[in-house]
Amino acid sequence: xxxxxxxxxxxxxxxxxxxxxxxxxxxxxxxxxxxxxxxxxxxxxxxxxxxxxxxxxxxxxxxxxxxxxxxxxxxxxxxxxxxxxxxxxxxxxxxxxxxxxxxxxxxxxxxxxxxxxxxxxxxxxxxxxxxxxxxxxxxxxxxxxxxxxxxxxxxxxxxxxxxxxxxxxxxxxxxxxxxxxxxxxxxxxxxxxxxx
Length: 196
Prior knowledge:
Structural class: mainly alpha
Distance between the termini: 23 Å
Helix content: over 70%
Largest sheet: none
Strand content: under 5%
Number of strands: 0
C-alpha cells in the first residue's frame, strides 16, 4: 500500500470517528443518515483506495496523504512523527485543563478539532504540501467555534455539530473530492510524457 493510500484511509477513518462520536447528540432522523454516509465514505476509500482503482480523491493534496519523500511504502518521515507527538501532547494537556481545571467537558470536542486542525498545518510544512493549510485552517476554525459555543453554554448538539460533525465531513470530503491525485504520481507522468 502506498503512502497516499494509507493517508487516505487514515483521513477517512478519522472523519468517520468524528461523525460517529458526535452524531448521537442530534435527533435520530438526522444522526442515522449522517452516520451511514460517513461509513459509506470510509468504506469507499478503504475498498477502492486499496485496489488502486483510481478512486477520485484529494487526500494527497488536502488530507493525510504522503510524506515529503516520494515513492511507495508507508513511511511518513520524521516530520510527521514530530507533528503527531506535538498533537498528542497538545490534546492531553488541553483536555486535562478543560476537564479538571475548567470543568467544561462539553468543550473537549472543540479542543480536539482545534488541535487536529493545527496538526494539518504542521503537516503542510513538514511535507511541503500547502493545500493542507486550507484543511487545517477549516478544522481549526470549527474547533475554535466549538470552544466559543461551549463558553457561551450553547446546546451540546450545536457544539458537537460545529466542532465534531463538520470536521468529520471536511476530512471525509478531503479524501473523496475528485480532481486531484498524488503529486509524486503526477510528477512521474510528466517525466514519462503521459500527462493523462
